[in-house]
Amino acid sequence: MPRPPTGGAGHGTAGAGDQLVSIGTVLTQLREEFPEVTISKIRFLEAEGLVEPQRTASGYRKFSSADVERLAQILRMQRDHYLPLKVIREHLDALARGERVRLPAPASGTQRELTAGSPFEPDQDAPTAARVGRSELLAAAGVGEDELAEWESYGLITPVADGAYDAEAVTVAKLVADLGRFGLEPRHLRTVKAAAEREAGLVEQVVAPLRRHRNPQTRAHAEATMKELAALSVRLHAALVQTALGVRLH
Predict the structure, then answer these.
(1) CA–CA gap between residue 86 and residue 90 (Å, rounded)
(2) Predicted pLDDT of residue 7
(3) What is the mean pLDDT of residues 200-208?
(4) Which of 151, 174, 209, 210 is least surrounded by Cβ atoms within 10 Å, i.e. has the fewest?
(5) What is the CATH number of domain 23-123?
(6) pLDDT tens per residue, range 174-184
(7) Global confidence as pTM
(8) pLDDT reading at 5 higher than 60
(9) What is the mean pLDDT of the segment spanning 8-23?
């Protein structure tokens, strides 16, 4: 399969003479560059609204060449730049508006070919992950030193090596603070943390073979796969909690 152009637009629609293909054909085309892609992965991206294939009267998916190009762009941004789907969606929307998009430098040794003037220009100065200091974390969560120290003692918040905190720590801090307003204390959240660690262990088991793969692109793809599995795990957890509450309240 020829490498799709790196310039992009919004969701693909079939133009005159554009032959629509099945999801199986799409899988075969994409696997030339992305050997680990699966039909489940394509369906997941569709469920997230990142690609919208047409449907036959019988409900079968039919993809245009623009859909395949869009999928390749998404997979490439995940593999080469470790971008979350939310950011990828924003980039694609910007491209659809005719704007230029700057990507962070590739997080792995995998280099992507870029033509002069391409809208996908890696930003060599872009940070790979946002970090904040302790005072910024306290301000974001709206709490004091004592509360943060207690959260750290229960392992709910953990600074990185340089004493700063990553973006996920900020999210956790805000959520713990919000739960605290309902009377839930850090000791009550130990079971939640334990469940999260078990889920993380399951994700690591799935990703481990990718990290050991001889193909460097496959190893680089492990990070994106881990993030996708984590997102699915979070969605499943939320659905199960809502289901359990629904059963108990009725």
Answers:
(1) 6
(2) 39
(3) 87
(4) 209
(5) 1.10.1660.10
(6) 999 999 989 99
(7) 0.47
(8) no
(9) 64
Domains 23-123 and 129-184 alike in fold: yes
Residue where the block lists tokens 């554009």? 18
Nearest to 153 by CA among 197, 201, 189, 195: 189
**Per-residue H/E/C for the chain:** CCCCCCCCCCCCCCCCCCCCECHHHHHHHHCCCCCCCCHHHHHHHHHCCCCCCEECCCCCEEECHHHHHHHHHHHHHHHHHCCCHHHHHHHHHHHHCCCCEEEECCCCCCCCCCCCCCCEEEECCCCCCCEECHHHHHHHHCCCHHHHHHHHHCCCCCCCCCCCEEHHHHHHHHHHHHHHCCCCCHHHHHHHHHHHHHHHHHHHHHHHHHHCCCCHHHHHHHHHHHHHHHHHHHHHHHHHHHHHHHHHHC
What are the tokens at 10? 């919004």
106 contacts 81 by C-beta, under 8 angstroms? yes
- In the structure encoding, which two tokens stand for residue 224, read together? 């994106």
Residue 8, classified by CB atoms within 10 Å of its CB into exposed (0-12), middle (13-18) or buried (19+), is buried
Fold exhibited by the domain 129-184 = Multidrug-efflux Transporter Regulator; Chain: A; Domain 2 (1.10.1660)
